[in-house]
Specification:
By secondary structure, this protein is mainly beta. The chain contains 1 helix and 11 strands.
Length: 151
């Protein structure tokens, strides 16, 4: 299944400066640091007037998108620097099956006033496929390991 219309995944580009690597962050109206606690499976959320731009800065987790009564599992990790953009109106949640908390930056774009329900969980209409979520993260980590070996 391809990505849901409006969802974007972009590699984060960097510039090497001596021993350091510099990354440009996304432009935003507001920037938040979000903690996805270890060993958690979150409900869904939907934002009416904001676009989320997510970048993992510590750890890993699986972003879950619900569209047309099907889940899509998008693994995110510090080992693969990338930004996922979630436009308004898309139901999304998170799964962190790791023993470590995950920290991410949300460089959000506001399209109007925040709505109270934007941050209230929506009950999942279908159970998550935890095995599929684990597999998606495993595959991402395996690709990251392979690209490190090639360097």
């Amino acid at each position: 299944m391809g990505l849901i219309q409006g969802i974007q995944i972009r590699p984060l580009e960097s510039i090497q400066g001596g021993m350091a690597e510099f990354y440009n962050l996304q432009s935003s109206d507001e920037t938040m640091v979000v903690k996805v606690p270890a060993n958690t499976i979150d409900d869904l959320f939907v934002h009416r007037n904001q676009t989320d731009q997510l970048l993992v800065v510590k750890g890993s987790f699986v972003l879950v998108i619900l569209y047309n009564r099907q889940y899509q599992y998008i693994p995110l990790s510090t080992h693969v620097p990338q930004v996922v953009t979630i436009p308004p109106g898309i139901l999304h949640g998170s799964i962190n099956l790791s023993d470590e908390d995950c920290l991410l930056v949300n460089a959000l774009l506001r399209h109007g006033e925040p709505h109270l329900k934007d941050y209230q969980p929506v009950t999942k209409p279908l159970p998550y496929d935890i095995k599929q979520a684990q597999l998606s993260l495993h595959n991402l980590e395996a690709r990251a390991s392979q690209s490190l070996v090639k360097r």
